[in-house]
Amino acid sequence: MTTTLVVRFNKQTVLAVISGLVMLFGLAACQKEPPTTRPPVALPVYDQGDAVLGKVAYEKQCKQCHSLQVGSNNKGPQLLRIYGANVGLLNEYQYTDALKNSQIVWTAESLDRYIANPKQAVNGTRMRSEPIADAKMRQDIIAYLSTLK
Fold first, then answer.
1. Angle, helix 51-61 to helix 135-146, in steps of 10 degrees
2. Residues 113-125, mean pLDDT to the nearest whole number
3. Neighbouring-strand partners of residue 86
4. Which residues pair with 105 in a beta bridge?
């Protein structure tokens, strides 16, 4: 003996179920992914500069375009844990192809070269700041960035 269950839905019930499913899946599809972050800094603190002076120089030279907060990219990517990191790790920042393809690891040497003259270090970069000619100031900025773990 087989029994058949017949369920009838009225038009309003069907529309309510469809609306609920659309909202459920639509909202999930629209949710932003959490911002990416760089792994903790593994390199020792850079001691060829003064991190205290570097913070002051960073505030004056870098802060207008670069944040130090995860997910807070401005004209340039946020710089938290940049020291020792591979270039182009932040998914939510649109790096130029030139920078992505450079395969740079941000060591003291590569940061110094880039800060000294971004366009010469990576032809095709978007960084528009004036080069920082003062080697001591660059060392101080790098020392400061190396402390941001």
1. 100
2. 95
3. 105
4. 86
84: left (phi over 0), alpha (psi -120 to 50) or beta: left
> Count of CB atoms within 10 A of residue 27's CB?
9
Q: Which residue has the higher pLDDT, 15 or 127?
A: 127
Which pTM value belongs to this model? 0.76
Q: Are 146 and 45 in contact (CB under 8 A)?
A: yes
Q: How confident is the model at residue 129, as a pLDDT? A: 86
Q: What domains can you pick out in the chain, each with its CATH number?
A: 51-147 (1.10.760.10)
8 A C-beta contact, residue 119 and residue 11:
no
- pLDDT higher than 80, residue 139: yes
Please classify residue 69 by burial: count the beta carbons closer than 10 Å to its beta carbon, then call 0-12 exposed, 13-18 middle and 19+ buried: exposed
Only one residue has tokens 């992914």, namely 33
- Find, among 146, 148, 149, the residue nearest to 48 by Cα: 146
How many beta carbons lie within 10 A of that of residue 80, not counting itself? 21
Written as six digits, the tokens of 49 are 């500069």
Tell me the angle at which helices 135-146 and 108-116 cross, rounded to the nearest 10 degrees.
Answer: 130
